[in-house]
Amino acid sequence: MSHLHIPDGVLPVWFWLTGYVIAAIAVALSLFMVRKVDLKKKVPLLGMMSAMMLVGMSLEMAPIAYHVNLSVITGIIVGPWLAIVAAFIVNFILSLVGHGGVTTVGLNTIVIGFEGVMGYWLFSVFRRMAKPGKSAAAATVITLFMSTCLMLLIVYLANINFSLPSSGEIRDIIETHPAKALGGLLKINTGFNFKFFAVAALGLGPIGWVIEALVTGVAVRFISRVKPEIIS
Question: How many other C-beta atoms lie within 10 A of the C-beta of residue 222?
Fold first, then answer.
């Protein structure tokens, strides 16, 4: 849910251009920060995790219109700076196949890059108190909640008109049966309004967060046993 599936022509020009500028600064800073890192070891991991993110973000869980991002585990494995680079690579490739517009690459890089950085940082903190698998799972849930809030903030600031014909993917999320049921339960109008979109995202999101937390937790636990130096 934290990935913006917004086609071209919906976002204001000034808004998506600002997203590109911020993303460019973040990527440039990331490349500067890793200049002294042994990239012979990190680049293969960057390619592998970027490929995993591409697969995960291309497979949708139909009932809740959700897909795993695998951004947290990417941050844990390649580090926070290269996680931002991976976020740009993945979002750029996805935009070329219609998974969100080209105009959202910058904004999506900010959101997914945020997940990689925050996931890495939270994992580093939690790992002092718990085992790697549990730490990764906890970091994933908290990170995805925060990134969903960030995504909602971006949608709110963009002042998107959900009734536009080009905003079909957003309408698909709002019009899914679980989303309509949630709106009926909370007595919220299921029209194209931000309030309902936010409630649907935060109401259905935890299901996806838990699924991704389980995947991330199991993967990190396995890696910590067979190849602990990758996440050291």
Answer: 12
Q: Is residue 3 part of a domain?
A: no
Q: Is the pLDDT of residue 189 over 50?
A: no
Per DSSP, helices labelled H in 59-186 are 71-78, 80-96, 105-126, 132-158, 168-174, 177-185
Q: Determine the structural domain holding residue 95 and report its residue range.
A: 13-231
User: What are the phi and psi torsion angles at 162 (to 5°)?
Assistant: -65, -15
In the numeric block, the tokens 């105009």 are attached to 103
pLDDT at 213: 93
- Total tally of structural domains belonging to the chain: 1
Q: What Rg value do the Cα atoms of the chain yield, rounded?
A: 18
Instruction: Dump pLDDT digits (tens) for 22-42.
Output: 999 999 999 999 888 777 888
**What whole-number distance in Å separates Cα of residue 167 and Cα of residue 217?**
34
Residue 34 to residues 40, 42, 85, Cα–Cα distance (Å):
12, 10, 11
DSSP H or E stretch at residue 98: none
**4 falls within a domain:** no
Residue 192 placed within a domain? yes
Secondary structure element (H or E) that encloses residue 207, with its range: helix 194-226
Question: pLDDT, tens digit, for every residue of 140-174?
Answer: 999 999 999 998 888 888 876 555 544 445 555 54
pTM over 0.85: no
The CATH number of residue 176's host domain is 1.10.1760.20
Nearest to 91 by CA among 30, 5, 184: 5
Query: What is the amino acid identity at position 28?
Result: A
Question: Apex CA 145: angle with CA 144 and CA 151, to 5°?
Answer: 80
